[in-house]
Design goal:
There is one protein chain. By secondary structure, the chain is an alpha+beta fold. 34% of the residues lie in helices and 19% in strands. The chain folds into 3 domains: 165 residues, ATPase, nucleotide binding domain (Nucleotidyltransferase, domain 5), CATH 3.30.420.40; 113 residues, Nucleotidyltransferase, domain 5 (2-Layer Sandwich), CATH 3.30.420; 98 residues, ATPase, substrate binding domain, subdomain 4 (Actin, Chain A, domain 4).
């Protein structure tokens, strides 16, 4: 190995979190190419979208579908933008790379990733893993006395619940819930379009609305009652001013004392604020016959050996973009506490930034003296092909 630092790439379905391991924070890039109605001749690669003057009616071209990398051309274009002269200006030659891949990734995609990084980018060494393993590594460094943790990774496409014992994932006990941030945004689009205004082509704007106004209910019946009330008694209803991309680039919540401006377009949002994220806890609301996140957490723990239960219940780590939604952690803790045996201590932790937590875990892992044995070098790959990954990781 010629370098002591590594490039850490947490490549998700919605964003790419990346940076050299010695940095305090990674840079976050949109993992998509977008096309705008207002500028038909130009494609916006990743964060070039910030240069778009009118982001209404954006068309997204994304490399991931249903959580897996399927469009290599789009992904390579995005990587070229991020690591080319326009952004990081990074040379992969003689560098170590820590790369995340989806859980239960398909073999052809795994082989394709290795081929790109060794043959096209010519990196010196590669360590492939999933975000949950890196999050576990970070958590274990922060809590050295613990032997186990349960990582809940709720991202763009799916939510995965992964028990870890002594830093290793128990794959046979891992559960996937087919609900993620993309589904929540689409559900909010459907709801607003049915009730008020057709926003089916406004994924970008509606995603911002979701980020600005949604919260996880701690008491559904109570919140529904409040949402039915009129006037000031309804503390849930709010007006949201839509962007016009001239004077207002991003929508905003309208204060009650704020006067209306001629020509501004507003939405009145009430129970959508909490019914949309409720799908995370009750997927059956949208006809998805699966357990919600809280129920899946308890089911996963109880499917593990009994001697692990107490360790897993008190070390539940929430990561991924959906964990940023206000009230998410409190709801998980309340639900799990209700379903868990009364003698069990329940501990639910949300990192200060659950979106970049896995990247920080990768950065910490790459700096450790013993981490080199997990990397596959380009020389090993040239001699043995992709099988060297399976041989090394099975030890």
């Amino acid at each position: 190995m010629k370098t002591e630092t590594s490039l850490v790439i947490d490549c998700g379905g919605y964003t790419v979190k990346t940076g050299i391991s010695r940095l305090d924070e990674p840079k976050v890039y949109l993992n998509a190419i977008t096309k705008a109605k207002s500028e038909k001749r130009r494609l916006f690669v990743s964060n070039q979208l910030d240069e778009c003057r009118d982001a209404s009616g954006l068309f997204y071209m994304i490399p991931f579908q249903k959580g897996y990398l399927v469009n290599w051309d789009i992904q390579k274009t995005i990587w070229d933008y991020i690591y080319g002269k326009e952004e990081l200006n990074f040379d992969f030659a003689n560098q170590k790379v820590v790369l995340t891949e989806p859980y239960f990734n398909f073999q052809p995609i795994q082989e394709g990733l290795a081929e790109v990084f060794f043959e096209d980018l010519e990196c010196e060494a590669l360590y492939k893993t999933n975000p949950g393993t890196l999050s576990c590594h970070k958590y274990m460094k922060e809590h050295p006395g613990e032997a186990c943790c349960l990582v809940v990774d709720s991202g763009y496409s799916f939510t995965h619940i992964i028990p870890h014992v002594h830093g290793k994932p128990v794959k046979s006990k891992t559960i996937r819930v087919d609900v993620g941030g993309k589904l929540l945004t689409n559900h909010l689009k459907d709801t607003i379009s049915y009730r008020q205004l057709n926003v089916m082509d406004e994924t970008y704007v509606v995603n911002q609305i979701k980020e600005d106004i949604c919260f996880v209910s701690q008491n559904l019946a109570k919140d529904f009652e409040i949402a039915k009330k009129r006037g000031d008694e309804n503390t849930i209803a709010l007006d949201y001013v839509l962007p016009d991309f001239t004077t207002l680039k991003r929508g905003k919540i309208k204060e009650k004392t704020e006067e209306s401006i001629e020509g501004e377009q507003t939405l009145r949002l009430t129970n959508e604020r909490f019914t949309v994220p409720e799908v995370l806890f009750h997927p059956s609301d949208l006809g998805i016959p699966q357990m919600g996140i809280s129920e899946a957490i308890v089911h996963t723990i109880e499917s593990c050996p009994p001697e692990l239960h107490s360790h897993l219940f008190k070390n539940i780590v929430l990561t991924g973009g959906n964990c940023v939604i206000p009230g998410f952690r409190d709801r998980v803790e309340t639900d799990v506490r209700f379903m868990a045996p009364s003698i069990m201590e329940v501990g639910v932790v949300v990192p200060s930034n659950p979106i970049t937590y896995a990247w920080h875990g990768g950065a910490a892992f790459s700096k450790e003296p013993g981490s080199s044995k997990f990397f596959v070098t380009r020389k090993e790959y040239d001699e043995h092909g992709y099988n060297i990954f399976e041989d090394k990781y099975s030890k």
